[in-house]
Amino acid sequence: MKVLIIDDSNTIRRSAEIFLKQGGHEVMLAEDGFDALAKISDFHPDLIFCDILMPRLDGYQTCAIIKRNEKFSTTPVIMLSSKDGVFDKARGRMVGSQEYLTKPFTKDQLLQTVRDFTGQAN
């Protein structure tokens, strides 16, 4: 399973990377939307975690751009945010995100979300 983590927080990126690698997944990290868009075509992730609040290109814009590319239109995008608001979840769905994970997340929450979208058994 190839997973792309887009987050401007080095701590969040590294935590997610450690958790996912422990779960047996291949991980690519991106520090913002522009970085992600530069890497996505070469990496071809099966699943994308995308922070909402990032400089330059926010998570909603990044998700919308990814979803407009027909190569990645069916790739699940899970929004990451420290806010757990109804508005944020609804806006995420409007740009094509499939799920919303509140930070800080645990290893179990992260790996369960991956399993939910890949059909992997526990």
Features:
45% helix, 5 helices, two-component regulatory system, phosphoprotein, Rossmann fold, Sig_transdc_resp-reg_receiver, 5 strands, 122 residues, five-stranded parallel beta sheet, single chain, alpha/beta
The level 1 CATH classification is: Alpha Beta
State the order of secondary-structure elements, H for helix, E for strand. Answer: EHEHEHEHEH
Give the CATH topology.
Rossmann fold
Unreliable stretches, pLDDT < 50, 5 or more residues?
none
Determine the fraction of residues in helical runs and give it as a percent range.
40-55%
- The proportion of strand residues reads 15-25%
Total tally of structural domains: 1
Report how far apart the termini are.
14 Å
Sheet bearing the most strands, described? 5 strands, parallel
So, the CATH homologous superfamily? Response regulator
In which order are the strands of the major sheet placed? 2-1-3-4-5
User: Number of DSSP strands?
Assistant: 5
Q: Label the CATH architecture.
A: 3-Layer(aba) Sandwich
Mean pLDDT: 93
Modified residues (4-aspartylphosphate): 51
Domain Response regulatory: 2-118
Pfam families: Response_reg
InterPro entries: Bact_response_regulator, CheY-like_superfamily, Sig_transdc_resp-reg_receiver
